[in-house]
Amino acid sequence: MIKFGYTILYVNDVTKSIEFYEQSFGFKRKFITPENDYAELDTGNTTISFASKQLGNTNLKNGFLESSLQEKPFGIEIALIADNVKEVIGSSLKNGALLLEEPIVKPWGQTVAYIRDIDGFLIELCSPITH
Question: 41 vs 6, 48, 86, 130, CA distance in Å?
């Protein structure tokens, strides 16, 4: 059996990053190491995790591309489904996010917007798709 467990974002300050997600989106902290170099959020069925860039460099001996607000976002996103996309945008901007794309309604009726978190990771904020 295989199931999707979690996504880990390598960040400068694990505590600051997890606080951004708690304050912006209302997620609850599930776990944080005593060293504050790894943490997990309870986000529903899947976990978003954060690890320090230093920990990432010990895990990946050849290094990795670091997310940065000074560069374009990676070609991957975290999608967060919200009943009120505009409200979540406001909350995230208040906590330091950067708005990339204003909300638009897609032809299938879903509202979609894009922000970058405080570490530069791309987040899609979208309404549920109704079938």
Answer: 10, 6, 23, 26
Kindly tell me the sign of the dihedral angle through the C-alpha atoms of 127, 128, 129, 130. Answer: negative
- CA 89 to mean position of chain CA atoms: 13
Q: What angle do CA 8, 117, 127 make, to 5 degrees?
A: 90
Q: How far is CA 87 from the centre of its chain?
A: 17
Give the C-alpha separation, 47 to 24, whole Å: 16
Q: How many CA atoms lie less than 13 Å away from 71 in the CB half-sphere?
A: 9
- Phi and psi torsions of 102, nearest 5°: -60, 155
Condensed to tens digits (0 to 9), the pLDDT of residues 14-32 reads 999 999 999 999 999 999 9
pLDDT at 44 > cutoff 90 = no
As a whole number of angstroms, the distance between CA 71 and CA 98 comes to 13
Specify whether the CB–CB gap between 85 and 93 falls below 8 A.
no
Instruction: Tally the C-alpha atoms within 13 A of residue 20's C-alpha that lie toward its C-beta.
Output: 25
